[in-house]
């Protein structure tokens, strides 16, 4: 398949049809009978998916793509680059190589990278692509990564792992022991081969659960891309038993919002206040971190309520999240809703509120969109309120 899919005519056809709906293409007759039509359609679908997520691959000639699902599951270039800033040294072995996006960026910082992939066909594709990308310091090892790691006698500066959930564990609570490889059970073996381990997990994993399953955790990085949490990174170092630092990062187009705090530091005193002039909503990485008191303390702002996770201040500050100016603060009741929001157009958010956004829209006939932002929440006196705001 690999040789034929790279024929000039087929590559030209793929590039010319990237914006054509795949359902429409599927109805056409295959113009290249020597290769399966589904294979060509798969390349078109996967490459179209890579355009924004993997621009380096997209712009490089003669790249072979795996399934669209593999592209969806792989790291984006932006998150892969961030990971590369966390590591240093001469050698790294990736036990779950996949499409190789993380390793491409690791290879910019590390002299020798080993890409292990149990799917031999995918390993062959990745090896070909690294050649097209002119990467010469990554060695591809097809087959079981545990066997590969055991057979190579040298120590590594880093081990990188992106464990995948087993199919039979889909309905259960997400635990690392339910993944392949089983990182908690293999940690002692891994630490025989390295002093530093970086583990990537899906955002679904609970921080407390991950910390309880692992050991020697130094940092946990919560990575969001354009305010959507994409992955958690667990940084382990042999013998480390000190405080764990939670680091939140929101990668935006023009900047990076970052915030960090010490895990389980419950000695923070914070202020509560009724809504003042400005309102702050933390980004999704901070929301995932649970550092709600810590963000109030660091930015010297007040919380509206213990469980609302909205903040306020009299002066506008630079905050890692969304900032609003409060135009009206009204008690949530029938009279006020009829006066101010009935049949209105607004963006609605609920925090610590008994009704859903869908129910509120239906009940008060509020259309979606516009420049008005309404927060339905609870204040420090346990009163239900609506904050009508404009975004800054």
UniProtKB/TrEMBL annotation:
Signal peptide: none annotated. GO terms for biological process: methylation. It comes from the Bacteria. InterPro entries: PG_1098_Fer, SAM-dependent_MTases_sf, Thump-like. Pfam families: PG_1098_Fer (PF22013), Thump_like (PF18096). GO terms for molecular function: methyltransferase activity. Residues 321-391 form the THUMP-like domain. Coiled coil: none annotated. Residues 278-320 form the PG-1098 ferredoxin-like domain. Keywords: Methyltransferase, Transferase. This is Class I SAM-dependent methyltransferase. It comes from Flavobacterium muglaense.
């Amino acid at each position: 398949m690999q040789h034929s899919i790279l024929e000039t005519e087929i590559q030209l056809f793929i590039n010319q049809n990237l914006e054509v709906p795949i359902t429409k293409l599927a109805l056409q007759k295959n113009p290249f009978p020597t290769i399966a039509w589904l294979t060509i359609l798969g390349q078109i679908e996967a490459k179209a998916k890579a355009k924004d997520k993997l621009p380096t691959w997209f712009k490089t000639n003669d790249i072979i793509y795996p399934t669209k699902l593999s592209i969806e599951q792989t790291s984006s270039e932006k998150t892969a680059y961030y990971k590369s800033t966390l590591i240093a040294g001469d050698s790294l072995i990736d036990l779950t190589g996949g499409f190789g996006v993380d390793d491409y960026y690791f290879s910019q910082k590390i002299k020798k990278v080993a890409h292990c992939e149990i799917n031999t066909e995918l390993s062959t594709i990745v090896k070909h692509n690294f050649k097209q990308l002119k990467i010469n310091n990554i060695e591809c090892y097809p087959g079981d990564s545990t066997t590969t790691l055991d057979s190579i006698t040298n120590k590594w500066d880093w081990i990188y792992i992106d464990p995948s959930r087993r199919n039979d564990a889909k309905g259960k609570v997400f635990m690392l022991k339910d993944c392949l490889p089983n990182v908690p059970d293999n940690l002692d073996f891994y630490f025989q081969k390295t002093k530093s381990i970086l583990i990537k997990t899906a955002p679904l994993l609970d921080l407390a659960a991950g910390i309880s399953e692992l050991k020697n955790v130094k940092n946990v990085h919560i990575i969001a891309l354009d305010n959507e949490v994409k992955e958690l990174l667990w940084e382990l170092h042999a013998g480390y038993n000190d405080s764990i630092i939670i680091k939140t990062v929101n990668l935006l187009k023009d900047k990076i919002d970052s915030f960090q705090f010490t895990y389980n530091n419950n000695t923070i005193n914070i202020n509560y206040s009724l809504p003042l002039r400005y309102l702050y909503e933390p980004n999704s990485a901070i929301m995932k971190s649970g550092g709600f008191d810590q963000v109030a303390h660091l930015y010297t702002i007040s919380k509206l309520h213990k469980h609302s996770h909205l903040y306020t201040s009299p002066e506008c500050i630079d905050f890692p999240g969304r900032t609003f100016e409060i135009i009206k603060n009204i008690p949530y009741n029938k009279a006020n809703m009829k006066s101010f929001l009935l049949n209105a157009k607004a963006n609605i958010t609920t925090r610590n509120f008994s009704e859903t956004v869908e129910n509120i829209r239906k009940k008060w006939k509020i259309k979606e969109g516009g420049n008005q932002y309404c927060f339905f929440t609870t204040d420090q006196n346990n009163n239900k309120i609506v904050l009508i705001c404009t975004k800054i």
